[in-house]
Amino acid sequence: MSEMRLYDTAGNRLYLNAEERAAFLAVARCKPARDRTLCETLHFTGCRPSELLEITPARVDLSGGTITIRSLKKRKDASGNSKIVYRSVPVPPEYLDTLNMAHGIREAQKSRKQAAAPIWPLSRVRVWQIVKGIMIEAGIPEAPHRSPKGLRHGFGINATVNGIPLHMLQKWMGHAQLSTTAIYADAVGKEEQDIAARMWGQDSLGVRKSVVQ
């Protein structure tokens, strides 16, 4: 298995930064409901496109505020047998409201057949095309990070910058090993400045925060 990285061998960034993530989301929210919710799901859960295509209404917890995702990476139990692993990722209530309105999630959950049907009955290639098209429109430059994988890595970086503990991020992203998740602590540029600013007791503009005595 190849080691997961945030940069390719030429030093090119493999993740979307905060500005690119915001631009991507802004453009996605102007698109038809199917494409908008597809992009918002990738943005807010950090899931892989193949995992997104398995999400059904039954896996959307409107009251609990989570999306349950089946981890597609193979796992083995103590006996060495393959096992299925699910993870629940907390998401914003506004996103869930949009998802429910666009796809009739609450109504679909009343029918066993509809509750088990994929929300986005598309191919992986089509998902890639939708995401790439929106990234281009958002002005994200042609580079290795302009991809669904770049969006997933951006989710990990964003969580790290905002102080999410690595063990929690490991669960949200479906990593088998904490060492895999730890690559997101290797943030650079603007992201690293934000992390360092908290250590110094400053904001990202270098203005020292007031301290309550």
Automatic annotation (TrEMBL):
SUPFAM superfamilies from the UniProt entry: DNA breaking-rejoining enzymes
Family from the record: Belongs to the 'phage' integrase family.
One Pfam family linked to the record: Phage_integrase
Record protein name field: Tyr recombinase domain-containing protein
Highest taxon listed in the record's lineage: Bacteria
Any GO molecular function: DNA binding
PANTHER family (UniProt xref): INTEGRASE_RECOMBINASE PROTEIN MJ0367-RELATED (PTHR30349:SF41), PHAGE INTEGRASE-RELATED (PTHR30349)
